[in-house]
Specification:
This protein has 473 residues and is α+β, with helices and mostly antiparallel strands. It has eleven helices and four strands. The chain is elongated and about 135 Å long.
């Protein structure tokens, strides 16, 4: 069985070496890239940047993660505890009264009282590195929580951006619905006047009336959806309020060249997914499993301790006219050994379990790196498609805008009616909404891609301890 385990370990050496190299890497390099400067949603919308700053400190998700950080620090202290000596003390003050009795008659009374105390120190002196391995596991565990905290913030920043862009699109849609309802109300008012004048029948106005009610209902639903989305955004981001004027009705047209996308993807392929936050979590977990195996391997080894103690006994006793005083000081030291010779094959089971867990983590790590690389390549292709879709939407928007200008000129010349202008402007609002949606889709996907390849500048707001570690040392 042991020979098979040894062969299995040798087969895993390439991946173990890869993990070691990833651990020794400096960490996330988001600050090193100038290729993403000015391209993220918060770069276009300063209001979003302020919201992200608040979300890092006040969002419910990050507040909950702060508790995880505190717990990891507490666990770190417990992991290091065995490296320190154990100090214990004892103290007592006692008083004893005794009276002799003989044939029912009371005799002499004796008494004794005194203060006793002692101090003992115990220190492990040689444990075959077990306590050091446990301490390293504790350090790695704390660094894992730090990385998970940073990754949670990265994911939250992605959600905040996406929801903010969604609010912009919903506000534009609400603007369009209000414009359409205003046009229909104006048209219906004209038809109501025609009905009063008798130029149209009652039956001809029923459909416009119903149509207006349906659009008013749609408008109320859109308004409720918009307000509910704002409320959810406020709760998610942790901001105290979100005034309506903080959400624009315009969306910038992002400009990201294909060469820039390809350059970021090439750099990500070169550096590998091992340097992402989650990738380095896997690396540290593999190191933890390796330390678990080392600890299990030393279970049946002898362990040595150094003990020292110091004690004082100070008491007095008296009987009749006789008083005896005693003062005793004792101290000493010892080196002791503890050796478990047989534990019912528990050690063998612990070693096999540690190896199996390590192999499972290595497999998860490999699957993650491959899936993340595939995801990055897929995102680049999606950005290409979204870019083309955005160009088509921009072209349609431009045509609709030109049509509004043309009809406006014809209206001023008296060759067209205002209803034609209203319809043309409605078409422009629709084309503008579609273009804004295409911009939002592209900008959101670009931000996700930048975040995936570990270049998200939102991480710059975190202390470096969340982004870099020292291999558990």
């Amino acid at each position: 069985m042991l020979i098979k385990v040894s062969l299995s370990l040798r087969r895993r050496q390439p991946l173990a070496l890869l993990a070691l190299l990833a651990v020794l890497s400096p960490g996330i390099s988001f600050a090193q890239s100038a290729d993403t400067a000015g391209t993220l949603p918060e770069d276009y919308y300063p209001g979003l940047k302020s919201i992200l700053d608040v979300a890092l400190k006040q969002s419910p998700q990050m507040l909950a993660r702060n508790i995880d950080l505190a717990q990891s620090e507490a666990n770190r202290y417990m992991a290091d505890a065995n490296l320190w000596p154990t100090l214990s003390g004892y103290s007592a003050y006692s008083t004893l009264w005794q009276q002799a009795t003989n044939n029912g008659e009371k005799g002499d009374v004796s008494r004794s009282n005194g203060l006793n105390y002692s101090v003992a120190v115990s220190q492990p002196i040689f444990q075959w590195g077990v306590y050091k391995y446990q301490s390293d596991i504790g350090k790695l565990a704390q660094q894992i929580v730090n990385r998970q905290y940073a990754d949670a913030w990265r994911m939250l920043a992605m959600s905040v951006r996406a929801q903010y862009l969604t609010l912009i699109a919903k506000k534009v849609s609400l603007r369009n619905s209000r414009n359409q309802v205003a046009i229909m109300r104006n048209d219906l008012a004209g038809q109501e006047q025609q009905l009063k004048e008798g130029t149209i029948s009652e039956g001809e106005i029923i459909t416009p009336r119903l149509g207006l009610k349906e659009y008013e209902l749609s408008l109320d639903r859109a308004l409720q959806d918009y307000e509910n989305s704002k409320l959810l955004f406020i709760r998610m981001s942790g901001v105290s309020q979100l005034p309506d004027d903080a959400i624009p009705t315009e969306m910038v047209r992002p400009e990201v060249s294909r060469a820039r996308r390809d350059a970021l993807l090439a750099a990500f392929r070169r550096d590998g997914a091992e340097n992402t936050l989650q990738g380095q979590v896997y690396v540290m977990q593999i190191k933890q499993r390796d330390l678990d195996y080392r600890i299990a391997s030393k279970t049946l080894y002898p362990k040595f301790f150094l003990d020292a103690n110091y004690g004082v006994t100070n008491d007095s006793s008296g009987s009749g006219l006789t008083v005896t005083q005693r003062f005793l000081t004792s101290y000493g030291g010892s080196v002791r050994a503890s050796w478990t010779l047989f534990d019912g094959f528990r050690t063998r089971g612990s070693k096999l379990s540690a190896l199996a867990t390590k192999r499972a983590t290595e497999r998860q790590f490999q699957n993650y790196t491959e899936a993340t690389m595939d995801q990055a390549e897929s995102m680049v292709k999606q950005l290409e498609f979204l870019g083309r879709s955005m160009e088509l939407a921009e072209e349609r928007r431009s045509l609709a805008e030109d049509a509004v200008k043309k009809v406006t000129d014809q209206l001023q010349e008296g060759t067209l009616s205002k209803s034609v202008l209203d319809g043309t402007r409605g078409n422009f609002y629709l084309a503008d909404y579609v273009a804004i949606g295409a911009r939002a889709d592209y900008l959101n996907r670009w931000a996700d891609f930048v975040s995936l390849v570990s270049l998200d500048t939102a991480l710059a707001g975190l202390p470096t301890r969340y982004l870099n570690f020292k291999h558990g040392k």
